[in-house]
């Protein structure tokens, strides 16, 4: 994955300083270094086991994985080892997040929206909702995601998702995540 991949740059800009990103990797410089490589690995994995959808302008990026029988792996074994090297002692947060979300992840076949990113320069303009609406029309299976904020949860509710299970409260004063499901269209 090249450093000039527009999709990775959009993911980095969108998640540079959101609440979940700060919880996962509190130190901004460390976050930037880890995310550059991690997002590249996730995009590569999704290209093999799902789909990466980016508009022509690259301002919105969706990372989808196919879920069959539980949570799809965002990284292969080598990627997991590399992430552990990059994250160092903060890898515990990646593991905590993974364990909490895996426990709630549905087992039935679905498409899993692992990440959606909208460049900060166009956030709150409707581009994310428009692009997501288009993507949701592609599949005849349900979709699942974890909303990382009350604001994003409201967007997903408007797009036909509903809450499933209790919200996930991340440890160490972390943010609340909202598991959400959308039936097939």
Oligomer state equals single chain
Distance between the termini: 33 Å
Structural class: alpha+beta
Helix count?
A: 7
Beta-strand proportion: 15-25%
Which series of helices and strands comes N to C? HHHEEHHEHEHEEE
Please, what is the average pLDDT?
90
Task: Work out the helicity level.
Answer: 40-55%
Largest beta-sheet details? 7 strands, mixed
| Shape, per Cα inertia axes | globular
- The total strand number stands at 7
Gyration radius, in Å: 15 Å
**Would you identify the regions where 5 or more consecutive residues have pLDDT less than 50?**
none
Plain-language structure description:
It contains seven helices and seven strands; from the N terminus they run H-H-H-E-E-H-H-E-H-E-H-E-E-E. Helix 6 links the parallel strand 3 and strand 4. The relative contact order is 0.16. The mean pLDDT is 90. The chain starts with 5 loop residues before the first helix and ends with a strand. Helix content is 44%, strand content 21%. Strands 1, 2, 3, 4, 5, 6 and 7 form a seven-stranded mixed beta sheet that branches. The chain has 185 residues and is α+β, with helices and mostly antiparallel strands.
